[in-house]
Amino acid sequence: MSSSCHGGGVGKDQGIIWSKKDPHSRADAVLSTARSARMAEALKIPDPKVSVRCTVCHSPMQTVPTERLSLLKNFEPEKGVSCESCHGAAEPWLRFHTRPDVQHAQRIAAGLRELTDLYARANACVACHLNLDPEIANVGRHPEMFFELDGQMSAQPPHYKDEGAWVGPRAWQTGQAVALRELSWKLAQQRDATLVARWKALVWVLQKSGTLDVDADAASFAAAQSTANRFAKASAQSIWTREKTLQLLRAYSAASAEFRDAKVSVEELRRRGEVLVMAMDRLWSALKREGGLKSENFDNGLRVAVDLARAQAGFKKELFSAAIEQLEVALERLPQK
Ligand code: HEC
Ligand code: HEC
Ligand code: HEC
Fold first, then answer.
1. pTM
2. For residue 127, is it left (φ>0), alpha (ψ between -120 and 50) or beta?
3. How far is the CA of 160 from the centre of ligand 2 (A)?
């Protein structure tokens, strides 16, 4: 990458942000840690730094022929998740993508990946952020992966700005639907109890936010895959308002009784809790940012719920249920506008 292009200046600092702040530029370095070495040992991989089983997500440019990379000055192919991992291989568009007369659609036609549309963006991120080969997961040292587009977009140091209002809830819903599609696809190939619990939790959370025609008990994963895909596409185009966002947050905070339900296993309830707190966190963030809402009680209550949902010591459904009830109370006490 040339330092004069994305290397500095207002609106031209994507390269600096990526190399200095973005964890993606260090995604290859984690393959040199002792933790990775122990994972590799258990998997009988001689060197995780060069094994495609790891580099496919941590350093995908390794698989690209180096003669192509000479196009990009100062580019270090070994460096993690690069610009091209998200934006697409640059060769066809690199030479003209900066010309002012060239339109977005022309760049896309030349191979620059479509990332403006949230559905397309979710597809780009989920490829590395959800499904881990079960053999790697079973070693137990890799972090369990969750895909939640809005939260992960805001956790990535910003090198772009989305236009429009209420992008957050739209991204959240699109991302969760894409995650459901991916889990459905995985489960259609091979059943896995952990993933089934996570799949059911996603169905549960999405059915409160829209009409998702999936029967969680029938567990027909192949059908759910196409239903979730349609839901994701529609979500990317959905229109959100302050009222709609607040209404959904209220619906989630009214779910406390469902966490006392004896018919659902504790494991399934824990998985519901996990996706529920992610949903509430994203809706509440948007309401604070764009809806002018404020509540210390809600902030504090949400922190308690998040900790309970992720507690290492086990999921306490009564405590979690009570925490959600506190959030419902905090919302009732919001100053009326
Ligand atoms: C499907 C994509 C994918 C594959 C394959 C994969 N990883 Fe990861 N890995 C990730 C993502 C994404 C994260 C970050 C997860 C998070 O923080 O939520 C991660 C995180 C890690 C971490 C923790 C890093 C940290 O900053 O704490 C280690 C260590 C790691 N991976 C090692 C490996 C090794 C070794 C392999 C090969 C045996 C491997 N990974 C294969 C996607 C992948
Ligand atoms: C993890 C994925 C990811 C990586 C890595 C990444 N980008 Fe992006 N980038 C995005 C997304 C998503 C957008 C928003 C796209 C849109 O709105 O069309 C974006 C937008 C941009 C934009 C448009 C900025 C604007 O203001 O509209 C530029 C330029 C850009 N990226 C350059 C880079 C460069 C250069 C690198 C490498 C140094 C890079 N990106 C690495 C995901 C990524
Ligand atoms: C080619 C694979 C790949 C793609 C595509 C990708 N990521 Fe990542 N991402 C990774 C890996 C690997 C890590 C772990 C890096 C580390 O731990 O150092 C990571 C880490 C992250 C992190 C920090 C850890 C966390 O979960 O908080 C965020 C945030 C993130 N990615 C967001 C995104 C977003 C948003 C997109 C899509 C616009 C995206 N990523 C696309 C591979 C990828």
1. 0.94
2. alpha
3. 6
